Amino acid sequence: MAVGDVVLGSNQYGKAEVRLVRVTRDTPVHEIEDLTVTTQLRGDFAACHTTGDNAQVVATDTQKNTVYAFARQFGVGSPERFLLRLARHFVDGFDQVTGGRFAADVHAWDRIAVDGEPHDHAFVRTGRETRRTVVQVDGDDVHVVSGFTGATVLKSTGSEFWGFPRDAYTTLPETKDRVLATSVTAWWRWADPDVDFEARYPVVRDLLLATFAQVHSLALQHTIFEMGRAVLEACDDVAEVRLSCPNKHHFLVDLEPFGLDNPNEVFYAADRPYGLIEADVRREGDPPVPHVWASVPGFV
User: Fold this and answer.
1) β-pair type (180-190, 238-247)
2) CA gap 252, 179 in Å, rounded
3) What backbone torsions phi and psi does residue 142 show, to the nearest 5 degrees?
4) d(Cα 224, Cα 184) in Å, to the nearest integer?
5) Element (H, E) at 102
6) 252-284 confidence digits (pLDDT tens)
7) What residues pair up with 32 in beta bridges, in sequence order?
């Protein structure tokens, strides 16, 4: 809709970062699910922008309340399935809503051990990676992307970097044995939303990390391509893998001023600047779907 010669373009709105903690207490051994959920709706909301008419607007407070109500009514389970239920509620329940973006981060907790046994209802926040999900809906077109961020991994050997161009500004020495460390942000797009997400998520996650460990790396670029390829070769239900990996550099410390050698044992861990390596890995002939990735965080 135009106002004079000014036109409203694409738009979406919703409630960001709804903090949801769901405790299942059906037995004396409690379960805890901790998520941060964002809902954003797309559809016929032009009048609100151009004239201030809110007749079509599903309030963001309503969206927040729906998150909590659904957690009580249906439980949470896999974040993918929870977001798909939310998406269908808004798209099918409101004529003016044609689609949207629904995202969740999962915050993991482990049971506190007491006398070597896990406690029934006491938990400690883990240092593991954060599981993430984004659901994109456009009418009947549904795309589910799963992944994780903040998985800090390191190999103390089995990594090389050499054969790169050198010019007047190149000082980096070549190496056949280095520490390779990164913090993995990984996303994968499911070929179909009808997936047992709880069963399949750990399969993909473990395969990515196992490949990092097993590949003899000639560059971080080489490693992340092999990680993506391993998933696509093993998982027919995954259509595409995207990886973003900062190179957490470990530089060998010169100990000669102290009369000591350093056979790849003492390193300076530099936090910045860092190389940032990113790649999209998909099967040959499969077309890209840039509209799905446009609002997936953590990948340029």
Assistant:
1) antiparallel
2) 9
3) -125, 130
4) 9
5) strand 97-106
6) 999 999 999 999 999 999 989 999 999 999 999
7) 23
Q: Smallest Cα–Cα separation from 294: which of 215, 187, 156, 218?
A: 187
- Which sign does the torsion angle of CA 82, 73, 67, 129 carry? negative
Asked whether the beta carbons of 131 and 106 are under 8 A apart, the reply is yes
Burial of 137 from C-beta contacts in 10 A (0-12 / 13-18 / 19+): buried
d(CA 231, CA 283): 11
- Encoded tokens for 261: 């050698």
Q: How far is CA 7 from CA 14, 76, 149, in A?
A: 21, 40, 37
Band (291; pLDDT cuts 50, 70, 90):
confident
Total-model pTM: 0.91
Q: Which long-range contacts (CB under 8 A, 24 or more apart) does 119-122 make?
A: 120/28, 120/29, 120/30, 121/28, 121/29, 121/30
Catalytically annotated residues: 15, 60, 249
Segments of 115-194 assigned E as strands: 117-125, 130-138, 141-155, 180-190
Report the SS3 class of residue 86. Answer: helix
What does the DSSP 8-state code read for residue 257? G
- Residue 260 class from Cβ within 10 Å (0-12 exposed, 13-18 middle, 19+ buried)? exposed
In one-letter notation, the amino acid at residue 9 is G
According to the model, what pLDDT value does residue 2 have?
A: 54
Helix/strand/coil for 13: strand
> Which residue reads 């999962």 in tokens?
106
Q: How much is the pLDDT for 4?
A: 60
How big is the chain, counted in residues?
Answer: 300
Q: How far, in Å, CA of 132 to CA of 28, rounded?
A: 29
